[in-house]
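The data are set out underneath:

___
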Amino acid sequence: MLVPPPDPLRLIIVTPDFSVSQQIFPAQMDEIKQLGYQRILAVRPDDEEDADEQPPRFILEQTAIKAGLRFSHIPIESGAAFPESAVRSAAHLFGAHPEKTLAFCLSGIRSLRLWALGTALAGTLAPEQIVQQAKLAGFELTQFTPHFERLAKGTEPFYVADDYANLI
């Protein structure tokens, strides 16, 4: 049985339409909806932690839909390179018609990074704007600027896992 959320909902607002959070729980979906969010983006793969600390995705999806939220799942393993398919999916979500989205993972960092890569590929913000928005939210992404620039220009390689990629 799932326990109630251990802490109040803690959001980090990155842009007016995008925020990140640590793990969310079914009991928080109505509050998320009341805050004006339209979509939940789950970035954690299932079974990263025990069920009492990480509710199964299907339960989160059901409660999100019941609360009137859309639900997307783009799983990224902690410490792993971001697959091209994940970055392309994020670009689609954050492209021409973005919805107010709350993305979550264990700490919020993978969610932020996925947003940054997807936003660069979609071209909705320039690389320097991505870095600035992240900085205003308390995250340092300057070291990823070459990746953002490459994605924004559509040049190869698509994305490279390097020492910088493992920093966050």
